[in-house]
Amino acid sequence: MTALSFEVLGVEAAHHAASPTIMFRLRIAEGSGAVVHAMVVRAQIRIEPQRRRYDSEEESRLYEMFGETPQWGNSLRPFLWTHATCTTPGFTGSIDVDLPVECTYDFEVAGAKYMHSLSDGEIPLILLFSGTVFTRGDSGFSAEPVGWEQESNFRLPVAVWRDLMDQYFPNSGWIRLDRDTFDALQCYKASRALPTWDQAVEHLLKAAGDD
Q1: pLDDT-derived band at 189, boundaries 50, 70, 90
Q2: Domain span at residue 81?
Q3: CA end-to-end span of the chain, whole Å?
Q4: Angstrom distances, CA of residue 21 to CA of 17, 160, 189, 198, 200
Q5: What gap in Å lies between CA 127 and CA 4, rounded to an integer?
Q6: Cα–Cα distance, 159 to 3 (Å, whole number)
């Protein structure tokens, strides 16, 4: 049996990926002396919002997710951000590998909504690992699962996520609309000869403020 442990060493944005991607640097150690031929590593990444403080502006932005602050003792609970997978080459002892995590800017996804609401500081994460390890011994190759108890805590700087989104969506945000709502907004925009979607939404907001 292998004796594995996982540690997140750091994180950085992938600058030339096709979609917004954060690279977590993992150190995987094997303590029994087994020769690891390869590994398939899967990670469930959860956000632990109760493990940080929030200023008044952040509290206001997070109202939709967690309700009024007096409710936060019950509503501030860990939730799933995303899943990620990587493979490793063979090693003995330990190895450092990159775990790529694709990020969305869809505000209907809880993780994106939460991260966008933060002004600064860090995002408390827990990475729960699973997967398969392939070892090579005197009798040939064998495969065994990565133990479900493998996990690692990490605090992702908010600045890393914001800088990544600014690379792909500078000064922008994304929302998804039902087709009927989109068609109605398009008609509104065209009937008033508004050149951009921003101006159409701004026009609607001003009209709502005047009522």
Answers
A1: confident
A2: 4-168
A3: 70
A4: 7, 11, 34, 27, 31
A5: 15
A6: 35
Residues in the chain: 211
User: DSSP letter string over 157-175?
Assistant: EHHHHHHHHHHHSTT--B-
**The residue type at 110:** A
pLDDT digits (tens, 9 = 90+) for 137-159: 667 788 999 988 899 999 999 99
CA-wise closest residue to 201 among 162, 175, 169: 175
**Which pTM was predicted?**
0.83
Same domain, 190 and 163: no
Same-domain status, 201 and 99: no
How far is 108 from 174, CA to CA, in rounded Å? 9
User: Residue for token digits 């005047």?
Assistant: 210
Helix (H) or strand (E) holding 96: strand 94-102
Q: With H, G, I as helix, E, B as strand and everything else as coil, classify residue 207.
A: helix
Burial class (CB in 10 A: 0-12, 13-18, 19+), 81: buried
Task: Please name the residue that has the structure tokens 């008033």.
Answer: 192
**Cβ atoms 109, 117 nearer than 8 A:** no
Copy the structure tokens of residue 52: 């940080």
